[in-house]
Amino acid sequence: MGDSKGVLSIVGIGPGSAPHTSPAALEAITSSDVVVGYITYVKLVRHLTEGKEIIRTGMTEEIGRARAAVERARDGAKVAIISSGDAGVYGMAGLVFQVLKDMGWKRGESPELRIIPGMTALNSCGSLVGAPLGHDFCAISLSDLLTPWPVIARRIEAAASADFVIGLYNPASGRRTRQIVEAHDIIARHRAGTTPVALVKSAYRKLEQKIMTDLDHFLEYEIGMLTTVLVGSSHTFVFEGYMVTPRGYTNKYTWDGNAIPGQTPGRSLVLDADADAEGE
Ligand code: SAH
């Protein structure tokens, strides 16, 4: 073990374009000696990594990559481990903590940890299609490489029945094509076929693509590893090509800004017998 305390920065770089990477993330990368990450993400920040040691590995070598990053930092190096979006959202952060736990690391010991938040795919993809996340939403990853499918299916069922807007991460890959079809079938048992669905691929990257469709038709389009699928709630609507989930202001106010008779600003919404409790 080295004498000086190392630093391990766990960095979310955002969707993949420079203006959408935070200054804090940039600083964490440029001040590190070693940058660790999946090849695609390391390429996205290659303008920042000149002269640095790079540990690039493929998709299935995450444990080795996390261990290498932690060990180098423990021994005194300044290491940045990078994920796209936010490192804590289906990224490397959790795994880094598991490695630290496994090696018996304690707060105050080397390495010092710095966790830098990034704009997750739900934020970047949402911004490209309007305001789809304006009311309660959830994220579900359809990858069953590390999670049993019945667990995922149960979560889709719960989210669909509770009328959440649903962001589907990892919807499909070359080999994994069945899950998105099953997800569709589960959601369609709870929502109208006209429910807005947006497919956003490679948000804020060169090959960015967005498609506005609906629950009945979205499976007709190409969906892959770089796609996030946004499924609206029963209140989500499309307006001028934008996908919008309203927050329910019109339950309480008229468009001139006054409270509807019987409602009080700052107080819980008063329901009448046939009011719909959410959205419009
Ligand atoms: N840590 C990342 C998520 C990694 S999981 C984050 O916070 O965004 C990988 C999945 O994220 C992909 O399968 C895709 O569903 C989504 N994703 C990541 N970057 C994306 C982008 N630029 N455009 C669209 N979807 C993206």
Number of helices in the DSSP assignment: 8
At CATH level 3, the topology of the largest domain is Methyltransferase, Cobalt-precorrin-4 Transmethylase, Domain 2
CATH classification, class level of the largest domain: Alpha Beta
Ligands in the structure? Answer: S-adenosyl-L-homocysteine
Mean pLDDT: 92
Strand order in the sheet with the most strands: 3-2-4-1-5
Characterization of this structure:
It is a single chain. This protein has helices at about 25-30, 40-45, 60-75, 95-100, 120-130, 150-160, 180-190, 250, and strands spanning about 5-10, 35-40, 55, 80-85, 110-115, 130, 135-140, 165-170, 195-200, 210-215, 225-230, 235-240, 240-245. It is α/β, with parallel strands linked by helices and about 280 residues long. Bound molecules: S-adenosyl-L-homocysteine (SAH).
Properties at a glance:
alpha/beta; 5-stranded mixed sheet; 5-stranded parallel sheet; 8 helices; binds S-adenosyl-L-homocysteine; Cobalt-precorrin-4 Transmethylase, domain 1; single chain; 280 residues; Methyltransferase, Cobalt-precorrin-4 Transmethylase, Domain 2; 2 domains; 13 strands
Chart the SSEs and their pairings:
Layout: E1 7-12, H1 23-30, E2 34-38, H2 39-44, E3 53-57, H3 62-74, E4 78-83, H4 93-102, E5 112-116, H5 121-129, E6 130-131, E7 137-141, H6 149-161, E8 165-169, H7 178-188, E9 196-201, E10 209-214, E11 227-231, E12 237-239, E13 242-244, H8 249-252
Parallel strand pairs: 1-4, 1-5, 2-3, 2-4, 6-13, 7-8
Antiparallel strand pairs: 8-11, 9-10, 9-11, 12-13
Helix pairs in contact: 3-4, 6-7
Residues 15-16, 83-86, 89-91, 120-121, 124-125, 169-170, 200-205, 225-228 line the site of S-adenosyl-L-homocysteine.
